[in-house]
Amino acid sequence: MADQYMNDPMQEVFIFETSQQLEQMEQSVIKTEALGSYPSEIINEIFRIMHTIKSSAAMMLINNMSVLAHTTEDMFYFIREEKPAVIDVSTLSDLVLEGIDFMKLELEKIKNGVEADGDPKSLTDKIKEHLKQLKESNNLTDSQVINNEPIKEKYYISSNKAAKISELKTYQAILRFDEDCGMENIRAFTVVHNLKEITESFKSTPEDVINDPDCVETIRRDGFILQIDTLESEEKLATFFRSLAFIDQFEMVELDQTQKIQEAICGLLSEDTISVPQPKETITACVINKEAPVNNGSQSQSIISVSVEKLDKLMNLVGEMVISEAMVTQNPDLKGLVLDNFSKSARQLKKITNELQDMVMSIRMVPLGPTFFKMNRIVRDISKKLGKEINLEILGEETEVDKNIIEQIGDPLMHIVRNSADHGIEAAENRVRQGKPRTGTITLEAKNAGGEVLIIIRDDGKGLSRDGILQKAMENGLVGNEAANMIDTEVFNLLFLPGFSTKEAVTEFSGRGVGMDVVAKNIEAVGGNILVESVEGQGTVITLKIPLTLAIIEGMNIRVGETCYTLPIMSIKESFIPKAQEIFRDTDQNEMIMIRGKCYPIMRLKEHYKVKTGATEIEDGILIMLEGETKTTCLFADELLGEQQVVVKTLPKYIRRMKKIDGLAGCTLLGDGNISLILDVNGLVTQKRLKN
Q1: Cα separation of 386 and 417, whole Å?
Q2: The pLDDT value given to residue 388
Q3: I want to staple 157 with a disulfide (CB 3.0 to 4.6 A). Which of 162, 334, 559, 565 is the partner?
Q4: Virtual CA dihedral for 293, 298, 299, 305, nearest 10 degrees?
């Protein structure tokens, strides 16, 4: 099944589009619940999404999802048609969200190569029972808008609009899909599959939409043409086409109206053109005008879907090109030679390489919005189950980061937001007694800061207790007598140690001593760091600093003896040549330096990594001030070699398992063919602090 998912474009499209529809529906339900009522547009949206999933899941033979979507569709069809005055919004939202969770789980099973075998019966029974209660509470038990026909024959047209036509009629329909939807052959196949629910007597042009490689351009140019023999009314056919996703517009006439058919085939919009509102999940706006020219295929679509795997390969190739460019321009054979034409060409090559690199990186960048919006569900569930009143504010959701980084920060973000809601925000009654607003607020904000992205999670809850954290840390043997000299930031960072938790009661959300250490590991894995600030009684602010991308970084190459190391530029505050009289030792005999009234520890890479050669006297080298997560350290090296864009390569597993190489984030290949080790600034600063 896993191979089938990877190689079956139909299934890939189904999973992608269904996931998007479920995410859209989840956000709509959460927003609607906050309003206290279901607006008609949300009811129509949920009905349309469930109708689409019902058909597409049945087409893919995922019957449990199809049955659940069908049952949910029944309920919202009743609500849409009868407009009951009394609706239990909370219970209805719970049922819909439970259905979304079920379908998401089934999609994950398919992705992982497991059969989608979940049993929806208990949930469908609850939905049917809720529908029964809806009818009873609104005195609508005699309503006939819901029938019990199989999915194959189910079309939701009011009884007063569904008169049967006594004789067989032939219609011709020309469907035009959204300009930027892509994969028009797959869309056409979906239409054909769903059309079988109405009639088995039809033919299409193009006919073989799956195996004909030229059919995509044909559909874009001429539309997807259907000739349908059916007993159904024209109105029912129109309703059928409106219910399908990605249809921009369609034209439908009876076959005996020869002139209109000819005009339609020629691409002219006739008087009988029926315009269809664009589905909400698409981006491109749709404007239908009788005088507007029809797309004749000369215009190429402006957006295409590209596999992330292909983008990864492209990024790797660009990285190799960056290395090759450096190897050419920094070739040792060129030292001392005056080559004006070569230098001019090298500058042009570097310019083009940088532009290509920037373009590839921009293609991989995706907004944080979808990740942020998922937190609405977390806050909603916690506030409801714990009886708290919490409002989530989202800012800067348009901020973009690399696709791979987004995949890494989803879980850490969920843990932090969950802890803010569970640990931080107090119960409404307690907040009122403290003079705070009854409703607590969690703010999720993202913004760019140079080569980094800052993700800030802020709450106005009870804050962190320094004394409480230290007491718990001492009980667990995590700190000793040095606790009295620890600054607040260091104390708060104890929360990220494995097994640390100040939560006395274990709930389904927190209190088991797991979670925050996973947060730290995941953020460090993408080259980021965490800063915690808090005022007891007022709230907590957690800031995640993450790089824009992991593949290529701006680095500063330094030399220690005959060894080269690379430092991320964004971690360097300044560099300077020290003087011997500025160096002193603390009570533990650690080297320190006083700079503008502040003391900073000195780390000698020569000693740390046991480098046999290199400067020993402080005045023979250079100090580089590095800013870490909680501390600032001055790194002693022989010299700065210069700034360079470097491609980050991971260290082999057997090297990563060696404790003595702690403080290394990876390696890179330099222009002269040598390997440079990329230093992990946070790891170095942490080690220095622990040794002190």
Answers
A1: 15
A2: 92
A3: 162
A4: 130
Question: What is the distance, to the nearest Å, from the Cα of residue 150 to the centroid of all Cα atoms in its chain?
Answer: 37
618 pLDDT above the threshold of 80: yes
228: β partners = 171, 202
The two three-digit tokens of residue 181, written as one number: 């939807």
Closest of 256, 546, 242, 594 to residue 402, by C-alpha: 546
With both helix axes pointing from N to C terminus, report the angle between 340-364 and 308-329 in degrees, rounded to the nearest 10: 160
Q: How confident is the prediction for the chain on average, in pLDDT? A: 79
The reported pLDDT for the residue numbered 292 is 64
CA distances from 589 to 140, 586, 599, 601, 692 (A): 85, 5, 14, 11, 9
- DSSP-derived secondary structure letter, 649: B
Residues 6+ apart with CB under 8 A from 403: 308, 311, 364, 365, 366
Q: Answer for the pair 561, 608: CB distance below 8 angstroms, yes or no.
A: no
Could you tell me whether strands 390-395 and 440-449 are parallel, antiparallel, or unpaired per DSSP bridges?
parallel
State mean pLDDT over 206-211: 78
* Residue of higher predicted confidence among 527 and 409: 409
- What do you get for the CA distance between the two ends of the chain, in Å? 54
pLDDT tens track for 274-308: 333 333 333 222 222 333 633 433 333 456 667 77
Name the token pair of 184.
């028009």
What separation in angstroms does the CA of 572 have from each of 23, 171, 597?
41, 71, 19
Sheet containing 539-547: which strands, arranged edge to edge?
390-395, 440-449, 452-459, 539-547, 529-535
At 461 the pLDDT is 92
Q: Residue 73: which of 117, 103, 107 has the closest Cα?
A: 103
Q: What is the largest CA-CA distance in the chain?
A: 105
Provide CB contacts within 8 A for 199, sequence distance 6+. 228, 229, 230, 231, 232
pLDDT above 60 (res 273): no
Tell me what pLDDT residue 17 has: 86
Here the tokens at position 263 are 């005009």
Q: Environment class of residue 685 by beta-carbon count within 10 Å: exposed (0-12), middle (13-18) or buried (19+)? A: buried
Rounded Cα gap, residues 664 and 650, in angstroms: 10
Run of H or E including 351: helix 340-364
Strands 598-604 and 632-637 turn out to be: parallel
Distances, alpha carbon 492 to alpha carbons 207, 495, 520, 614, 653, in Å: 66, 6, 13, 38, 32
pLDDT at residue 662, as a whole number:
67
3-class DSSP assignment, residue 17: helix
Angstrom distance (rounded) from CA 569 to CA 640:
12
Residues pairing with 576 in the sheet: 623
Confidence at residue 157, expressed as pLDDT on a 0 to 100 scale: 32
Read off the pLDDT of residues 426-457 as tens digits, 9 standing for 90 and up: 999 999 999 999 999 999 999 887 667 889 99
Q: How far is the C-alpha of 265 from the C-alpha of 275, rounded, in Å?
A: 17
Confidence at residue 288, expressed as pLDDT on a 0 to 100 scale? 28
Backbone angles phi, psi at 35, to 5 degrees: -75, -25
pLDDT category at 499 given cuts 50, 70, 90 is: low
pTM of this structure:
0.64
Count Cβ atoms below 10 Å from residue 116 Cβ, excluding itself. 19
Please say if the pLDDT value at position 268 is more than 50: no
> What confidence score (pLDDT) does residue 305 get?
67
**Residue 144: what pLDDT?**
63
**Structural contact between residues 492 and 533, judged by C-beta atoms closer than 8 angstroms:** yes
Contacts of 341 (CB under 8 A, 6+ apart): none
Residue 550 vs residues 128, 284, 374, 497, 563: alpha-carbon distances, Å: 49, 32, 24, 25, 24
